[in-house]
Amino acid sequence: MEAILLVGGRGTRLRPLTISTPKPLLPTAGVSFLSHQLARAHEAGVERIVFATSYRAEMFEAAFGTKAHGLELVYVSEDQPLGTGGAIRNAARALTCDPDDPVLILNGDILSGHDVRAQVALHEETSAAVTLHLTRVDDPSRFGCVPTDDSGRVTAFLEKTSHPVTDQINAGCYVFRRSTIDTIPEDEVVSVERETFPTLISSGARVMGHVESEYWLDVGTPEAFVRGSCDLVLGRLASPAMPGEPGERLVLPGAAVAPGAIVRGGTTVGRGATVEAGSTVVGSVLLDDAFVAEGATVRDSVLSRGARVGPGAVLDGVILGDGAVVGPGNELRGGLRIWPGIELPPTAVRFSTDA
Length: 355
Ligand code: GDD
Ligand code: MG
Hints:
Blueprint: E1 2-6, E2 27-28, E3 31-32, H1 33-43, E4 48-53, H2 58-64, E5 67-68, E6 71-77, H3 83-91, E7 102-107, E8 110-112, H4 116-125, E9 130-136, E10 144-145, E11 158-159, E12 168-177, H5 178-181, H6 192-202, E13 207-211, E14 216-218, H7 222-234, E15 249-251, E16 256-257, E17 262-264, E18 267-269, E19 274-275, E20 280-282, E21 285-286, E22 291-292, E23 297-299, E24 302-303, E25 308-309, E26 314-316, E27 319-320, E28 325-326, E29 331-333, E30 337-338, E31 343-344
Parallel strand pairs: 1-4, 1-7, 4-6, 9-13, 15-18, 16-19, 17-20, 18-21, 19-22, 20-23, 21-24, 22-25, 23-26, 24-27, 25-28, 26-29, 27-30, 28-31
Antiparallel strand pairs: 2-3, 5-6, 7-12, 8-14, 9-12, 10-11
The structure holds guanosine-5'-diphosphate-alpha-D-mannose and magnesium ion.
Family: Belongs to the transferase hexapeptide repeat family.
Keywords: Nucleotidyltransferase, Transferase
GO molecular function: mannose-1-phosphate guanylyltransferase (GTP) activity
């Protein structure tokens, strides 16, 4: 089976992490986020993937080349972002399958443990035009809300509505009949969620929902990105791309964790990163060359490449950009983001290591 992977978004909600690296390439549990998706797609029977790229397009081929995780990889870039539907149509130029064959379409920011083979089987059994993976969430207003009838047929598609009619949402993994992709207008900006799906449904095409509530996460926000990385390290979602066994922490080669430092909750410690004695790092992502000084506490946070946390500082739910420095004794909480290279001076009451 062939697949199209949508990876052209700007990842705005994940800034400053996505200033230099597109969201799908962010290091997640020790490897690029996409490695987990690619490895799982291969397990599900996909053999060839067309990347639909736009933002920082050249970085994808540089990262994965033409073969990775047992897959043949092809890249199709948009000069201007064409939206999700336009991107699918544009990337379909590189498909080799027949008009009636199923094509898997994947949003490039999803961790999912659902059974792709069962989704494809439903698609084939019902001769559907499109079959969507649907899951249930607490707040459907942030997603595509997708009601179905008793037979599992999709009756409407309401993208990010403030009045959701069900907690069932679009999980960002579709099986399209190849010929249905060809009905999307060419070389135009098209949203598959706001245009293609509603049009197909109202024109009477068979659109099916495969409802499954296995592990599922869209890593598009900082909180979700940290959680996804930690869940992979903890083994809550099995990934063939994980560089190590599941456990409380993943310490990559070349990292230094001092005896007496507490590192747990699915934390990743990147290459060349240092965690000094007497510090605590819980449920966090430390990228390469990050540094946590003695007596510091880091929780639910991301330290980008070369970011530094001074002695006794406290970070809770914070994103540090590349090379950002938090001086000794600072306490940062609740969604704060520090841009690359910014240095916060020590607090007035300086943490002292000599006392
Ligand atoms: N090539 C290309 N071109 N890719 C794009 C473009 C584009 O113009 N715009 C977005 N993408 C890619 C993004 O990179 C991402 O992988 C995917 O399309 C979805 O975009 P997001 O920006 O992550 O959308 P969302 O999370 O707000 O909503 C989507 O996903 C939800 C599930 O996580 C929608 O499909 C919702 O209906 C769905 O519930
Ligand atoms: Mg998303």
